[in-house]
Amino acid sequence: QVQVKESGGGLVQAGGSLRLSCEASGRAFSMWEMAWFREAPGEAREFVANINWRGDSTYYPDSVKGRFTISGDSAKNTVYLQMNSLKPEDTAVYYCAFDPTARGEYNYWGQGTQVTVSS
User: Fold this and answer.
1) What does the mean pLDDT of the chain come to?
2) CA-CA distance, 108 to 110, in Å (whole number)?
3) In this predicted structure, what is the pLDDT of residue 91?
4) Tens digits of per-residue pLDDT, 14-33?
5) Are 38 and 83 in contact (CB under 8 A)?
6) Both ends of the chain: CA-CA distance in Å?
7) Per-residue pLDDT averaged across 60-79, rounded?
8) What does DSSP say about strands 10-13 and 113-118: parallel, antiparallel, or unpaired?
9) Alpha-carbon distance 101 to 2, whole Å?
10) Using DSSP, how many helices (H) and how many strands (E) does the chain show?
11) Sign of the alpha-carbon torsion through 77, 53, 10, 3
């Protein structure tokens, strides 16, 4: 059974940094894509970044471009989201999504990790 687990959230002051981690487990994977989404209270879930097992990162919305960086370790089926220059508007629950087909079908999700940025 595929499992997805995030870690690394917390409370940080504006301008600070956090690094989130996400690991997929349960069986061997020959290919995958992983993505980070975030959901703030009262707002729609927002796509933040994604990357595949080859290390090709594909998209950052303007809201995080230049501040967030996604990276991956294919041997560990793990991705990281380095978040710098955090702003109060980055406060949200961050979810990791996993696609073992590498077709953009994120059928496996983690439980989410809270990121709170104080002003």
Assistant:
1) 95
2) 7
3) 97
4) 999 999 999 999 998 989 99
5) no
6) 41
7) 94
8) parallel
9) 12
10) 0, 10
11) negative
